[in-house]
């Protein structure tokens, strides 16, 4: 499988992607090439840009079997990490029909409005002190909305620290091939 010409000409890897917007570089790279191999750090990465190419091999059509989600999420049986197949299609259909139907989404409106109000209050407080770390505030907002909808409780310190630690763990594990010291 040939290396991507765009990345090879600039030294290859992540450095070449960072010169422009990464998604623009990848889109230009995919033009006319259904399968391309990139080298990201020490890891060779295959980019499949067409559905026909992905159908050629079921390994490309499914999600990777990652260690952390497999251990923490009941063997990757949730909709985000389940391998593509009959189980995943059934789980997706159930999610759309029961969790994301218009009536259910409308029912969560009060929760969303309450949490947006809290987010705006937190932004206002943070802005009075100078720099606003919006990524942190949006993360707390997302956790609080999900916590209220799923569990009926606001995230709180314990939930935020547990979910934050899990989020960090998943991010570090995902970066392991590119930054060897993370492992």
From TrEMBL:
Which keywords, in A-to-Z order, does the entry hold? Iron, Metal-binding
Under which name does UniProt file this protein?
Cytochrome P450
- Highest taxon of source: Eukaryota
Tell me which Pfam families the record gives: p450 (PF00067)
- Identify its protein family: Belongs to the cytochrome P450 family.
| Transmembrane regions | none
Recall the GO molecular function terms of this protein's record: heme binding; iron ion binding; monooxygenase activity; oxidoreductase activity, acting on paired donors, with incorporation or reduction of molecular oxygen
Record's InterPro entries? Cyt_P450 (IPR001128), Cyt_P450_sf (IPR036396)
Q: Would the keyword rRNA-binding turn up in this protein's UniProt record?
A: no
* Organism, scientific name: Oryza meridionalis
């Amino acid at each position: 499988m040939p290396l991507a010409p765009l990345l090879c000409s600039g030294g290859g890897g992540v450095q070449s992607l960072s010169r422009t917007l990464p998604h623009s570089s990848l889109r230009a790279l995919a033009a006319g090439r259904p399968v391309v191999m990139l080298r990201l750090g020490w890891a060779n990465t295959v980019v499949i840009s067409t559905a026909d190419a992905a159908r050629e091999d079921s390994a490309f059509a499914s999600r990777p079997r990652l260690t952390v989600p497999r251990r923490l999420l009941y063997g990757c049986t949730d909709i985000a990490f389940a391998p593509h197949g009959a189980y995943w299609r059934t789980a997706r259909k159930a999610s759309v029909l029961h969790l994301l139907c218009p009536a259910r989404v409308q029912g969560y409106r009060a929760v969303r409005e309450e949490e947006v109000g809290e987010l705006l209050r937190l932004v206002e407080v943070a802005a009075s002190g100078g720099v606003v770390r919006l990524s942190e505030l949006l993360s707390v907002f997302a956790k609080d909305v999900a916590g209220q909808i799923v569990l009926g409780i606001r995230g709180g310190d314990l939930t935020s620290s547990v979910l934050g630690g899990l989020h960090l763990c998943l991010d570090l594990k995902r970066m392991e091939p590119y930054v060897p010291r993370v492992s």
